[in-house]
Design brief:
alpha+beta; eight-stranded mixed sheet; elongated; L-fuculose-1-phosphate Aldolase
């Protein structure tokens, strides 16, 4: 049985993701690493209305019976845990991150908070954006060095020490993507382009 504090993190995180329209009612998935286990959203569960029984435990290293109930993207989460320092993972369908992924090869932050947190948000191309196989192979490679990555036309994978840390990366990246989208849509030149300054390029 999942402990109350862990369930609270899942419930709050799931509700924020749906309330802010980062996910539809049933899309996306969230997980935490717990020793040699993964705690992950149940397949088909509504992210914004998670109950304790919607959190499935499955083995980190081998395929067990939990895989029958866990998210269809469990293997993506597993590979991220096995190949990065992630302790929690969120997969969401951030609208502005997805929009920019259709027209850009990386999201360069224009706002001060985005520059401080990310500077740039990488975008990757996979053969089948909606399928877990390609993402399981390619996403961990990027999350070794970045807190969040966008899969073109699909959505984001973010890591953290807790679900709340990962949530900060999901929401922060989306805010920066939204600011970039509206700023570039204005057609007006930037008064100051931080991405052209020395300290930015050295990061």
């Amino acid at each position: 049985m999942i402990d109350p504090e862990t369930y609270k993190q899942f419930k709050i995180t799931g509700k924020i993701l749906t309330d802010h329209r980062y996910n539809t009612s049933h899309s996306g998935n969230i997980s935490m690493r717990s020793g040699g286990k993964i705690l992950i959203k149940r397949r088909g569960a509504m992210l914004g209305y998670l109950e304790p029984e919607d959190i499935i435990e499955t083995d980190l290293y081998t395929t067990d019976s939990g895989i029958m109930l866990s998210s269809t993207e469990t293997d993506v989460h597993r590979q991220i845990y096995l190949n990065t320092d992630a302790m929690a993972i969120i997969h969401a369908h951030n609208p502005f991150c997805v929009i920019l992924s259709l027209i850009e090869d990386e999201i360069t932050c224009l706002d001060a908070e985005g520059i401080y947190m990310y500077r740039k948000i990488p975008i990757i191309e996979v053969e089948n954006p909606a399928g877990p196989t390609d993402a399981a192979r390619e996403v961990p490679k990027v999350l070794k060095d970045y807190p969040i990555v966008v899969v073109r036309a699909h959505g984001v994978f973010a890591k953290g020490n807790t679900l709340y840390d990962a949530l900060q990366n999901v929401t922060g990246a989306e805010q920066s993507a939204m600011i970039r989208y509206y700023t570039m849509s204005s057609g007006k030149p930037l008064k100051r382009d931080y991405s052209k300054e020395k300290y930015f390029s050295e990061w």
